[in-house]
Amino acid sequence: MPFPFVSYSEVDVLIIGAGPAGLMCANALATARVNVRIVDQKAFKLTTGEGDGIAPRTTEVLQSYGLAERLMRESCQLHLAAFYNPSSTGGIEVPYQQNTERVSSICKIPIRVRVVLEKFDKSEDRPRREIVHAKFVVGCDGAHSWIRKQVDITMDGEQSGRVDKDKIGPEQILESSIFALDCPEIARTLQAYPKSEFLWWTIYSVGQRVASKFSIKNRIFIAGDACHTHSPKAAWKIALVVRGWANMPLLSTYESERRKFALDLIEWDKMPVLFLIPRGCRTFQTDFTSGIGIHYQPSVAVNDRNQELASGLVLGKRVPPCKFMRAADAWPFELQDLLPSDFLFKLLVFTGDFSDPLQQARVESMVKNIQKPKSFLNRYATHGSSRFDIITISKGRKETFNIFRLPTLLRSHWSKVFIDDTDPTGSFGGEGYSYYGVGAEGALVVVRPDGYVGAIAPLDHVEDLDAYFASFMKIPA
Q1: In angstroms, what is the C-alpha Rg of the chain?
Q2: Cα–Cα dist 99/284, whole Å
Q3: What is this structure's pTM?
Q4: Does residue 445 sit in helix, strand or coil?
Q5: Distance between CA 345 and CA 319 in Å, rounded?
Q6: By C-alpha distance, which of 226, 227, 5 is closest to 123?
Q7: I need a surface site. Which of 4, 253, 341, 371 has the fewest CB within 10 A?
Q8: Residue spans of alpha helices (H) in 222-291
């Protein structure tokens, strides 16, 4: 059929698929002021959830985008979930349980544009076509990804056994769980459910498969169920390249980092123990399933030197939570709350005890080196704006600490300086240096825009960070 009407458009990033992965990717890129467009076949939002469980690490990511408050307010938290095996007769059998949280769908921005690249216009009784020119394409179009098929990316692995949906329903699932759990408290809860008031239900079939590639020539990427991974991990890298802040090699780390995790997840999913847990009220939870244990291997985005300077801030892992006192008003802050997904690299400056004359001299020498024109801090600045956010963390007592003794660079704003001390009531705090494994000599720690530790350097070796950023950052024209 001919297409009498063809329109053309240009965009930096075109996202195919407006599910959770696509929306998170669009939200991240929009936050970075990237010209992004998202398209989907569906004309309306879903009225029921489809696999909307949120793991702890996902909650941290949402928090970094300013979404966690609404998430916790509007969601329904479940602290125990059960998963079932298919039986040989097409039914279900003994479950295993896992601590979890279940929440409703949420996204910061709506889908502003709905586009079907080839669609039939009922009002005009004719088809229409739009040709979109994009610098990058991200396929977030699900397990049956059209994008993945167009670029001949295969899904490697196997599919678990299937349950015959004609032989099982929500009533049988509840009855089976009451029998299998052998836990009176949970059984009473399940028996309270009305057996005829289910608005939606489905059977989840475990697919132990992962895409053979996650990207094609660093121009086309797949994310979410299309490849078995998540999109914000690609968004910050694409954003830096689109805005001219980073070179193309940074994009190669998307596949090298995330595909390994996907393969590890497949292997974990195959563990027979998950299908052999005996009856009873038991739980199963690991850092891996919660997402907080993801560990990226060395690459241009993860330097593997100087780990001994901050043993608790593991290179390639996300920054764990720890509370520090804001020096200006002794207000306790979680360090994670100071690491928003704003596409800036965070430089954590652990000064040590600045009241010690020798340590003060080390810090002041470091500041002189980091302010040199060819240092990373100035080398990658754009029109007077920095790509780095400096957060200073000192040792000392809040009663005697003097913020004005710090070099100006380390106190760009009063809200950027913290001390490792207890809160005014003495209830918590004061253990941050020991928790992160930072010694009296201090350290420089680079946190990537996604909250993962990228590099560590001693105060007297700023050149280590110069080399780290030179491996992927782009000098402005």
Answers
A1: 25
A2: 7
A3: 0.77
A4: strand
A5: 13
A6: 5
A7: 4
A8: 232-242, 249-269, 287-290
